[in-house]
Amino acid sequence: MGGSNRPGPVIKLAAVIYSEKPAQVSQVAALQHESPEPGNGASPFELANESAYLHWRAEKLRLRASLPATRVFELGDGLLDTGVRADLAEQLDAFGFFVWQSSAELSETGLLNFNQQFGLHRIDANIGAGEHAVTCLQVVAADDKRSRYIPYSNRGLNWHTDGYYNAPQQRIRAFCLYCVNPAAEGGDSFLFDQELLYILLRDQNPELIAALMAADALSIPANEAQGEVIREVEQGPVFSAGLTGKRLHMRYSTRPKNIIWKQQPELLQALELIKQILNEHEGRVELKLQRKQGVLTNNVLHGRTAFSDGEIPRLMYRARYYDEIDFSALAHTGAVS
Ligand SMILES: [Fe+2]
User: Fold this and answer.
1) What is the CATH number of the domain that holds 249?
2) Rounded Cα gap, residues 17 and 201, in angstroms
3) Measuring CA to CA, which of 31, 46, 132, 223 is 20 to 30 A from 290?
């Protein structure tokens, strides 16, 4: 770290960040009216595709202005019908996540079956995951090998996306959190859709996006414990255009430890702006998942507040996937054995 390139002055946000208040809807509608049609399925996230970007941007802002971010969808045991699926798809397009409540408490395999309805099959079996590759997020004893990781403590977690340290073939495109038991106090989630962040940055200066999409923007040193290499050095972009070009993937963490940013002025300026947006912008969503509630997301930026346990400790199931959420996958659903 260090080097002679320092971040430039912090950019004032007031002039560049649109409001999501209803009074601004007419501006969004006007912008949508002016937007050209998307061309040939081009990814809106590639800087060269200005018309695809403008079209996608207008639709995203229109949806965000018309839907409540924290609507809880009450879903039964069976497969989802077409109408519910369409509502969930809109919610996901607008915010990068949706919140649901199951009618009965889901087991680990029940949760995997639920997620399969959205095309989520390739699950990431990370170090702390159990038999079904579902991770039980709870406070573990000090002699448990997972105790060195913050998710297994009651401490807060600052802004990050899951698996930002993973290799390219193991990018976490989606994950779900499901609440078996909430904390007695705290343990709230906070979320920020990286696609909204992308809009805010690209509107400010497309060069910030170019810096964030550079293949060497973010490096993670190797993870070693007791002389054993658990993970090799990992280098990659912050923003990339996902598997299909339709969903924006982001690698990011505010943790200063074990993370190396390329010392380039535009990137450092973008990072300052990101911090400012995450702290100040009204696109931040706060959630306290209750028992039987879950959030399914395109790995949006997120974190959690510190918590304290009551008589029944906080327990969240987490499943992470290499697949993107895909609403056309419902017909191909199979059971998890
Ligand atoms: Fe996370």
Assistant:
1) 3.60.130.10
2) 9
3) 132
- Ligand 1 centroid to Cα of residue 38, in Å, is 33
Domain of residue 242: give its range.
Answer: 22-329
Task: Please check whether residue 54 lies inside any domain of the structure.
Answer: yes
Total domain count for the chain? 1
Ligand 1 center to 29 CA (angstroms):
34
Q: Which tokens hold the place of 326? A: 């895909």
Alpha carbon of 282 to ligand 1 centroid (Å) = 21
What is the Å distance from ligand 1's center to 72 Cα?
A: 21
Residue 189 CA to ligand 1 centre (angstroms):
10
CA 161 to centroid of ligand 1, rounded, Å: 6
Give the tokens for residue 25.
């809807």
User: pTM of this prediction?
Assistant: 0.84
Distance from the CA of 199 to the center of ligand 1, in angstroms?
A: 22
> What's the CA-to-centroid distance between 302 and ligand 1, angstroms?
6
